[in-house]
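quick one, 254 residues, struct below
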Amino acid sequence: MDYLIEQGKTLWEQRTDPVSLNKAEHFIHLAHQQRPEDFQLSVLLGNIKYTKAYFLETNPDTQDELFLQGSTICRDAVLSHPEFKPMYENARGDSAIRLVFSLANAPKSVVPGLFWWATNLVRYLNKKPVLERLNHRELLEVIMHRVLSLDPGFYYSGPYRFFGSLYTRIPGVELSQSETYFKQALSANPEYLGNAVLMAEFYHQKAGNREQFHRMLEQVLNTNLTDHPELMAENFLYQGQARILLEKESSLFE
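---
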């Protein structure tokens, strides 16, 4: 077990290399099979699934499967967490009411699981029919509002980034809400290139802001990654995503 986890974490640190990322998933998956109750291990595997799906996978069906796996792993980790499970079991009402109530009052200890549960799930739903997205809206909002209230800066303003993306995909929501959330993410963590890339990918594309889309992604590509060595792996991957989006610019704004 220790070997699997050690190897998996070492390879995860080298995730800019696709081979290393695939091997990291393999080792951490094997460890998780042996120790499914390990909350931190589940969260790491959920993060790996998301990273592999978003940055590496090109087949839409395989992408969806990875996002769904990541979401399910983190959901199960939250539901079985020793500080959350009793709250859920003792809540009143049917299963749906108990779940929403418990999530709205979840302890800070499960924030990482909540974040990757919702982040994977919203990506899985991204290209699904509108009705399916609407059916999950309450769950997604309850989960991430709880993360926002407990740790708004989690994963470099992740909750703000999440809502910025979500509110471009839910009909009837003012697009300005997306812009507001993305601006909060950028203001708090401009060094994390994911905030800019996702704002371009979701908000500027949805709003038809081609000039801002192009300029923001060019700024991402011109960023010196050595300025923030602790973010080098993440930012390297997001630069790659910025490059892909710019290559698709013409078709995205037809």
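The chain has a mean pLDDT of 96.
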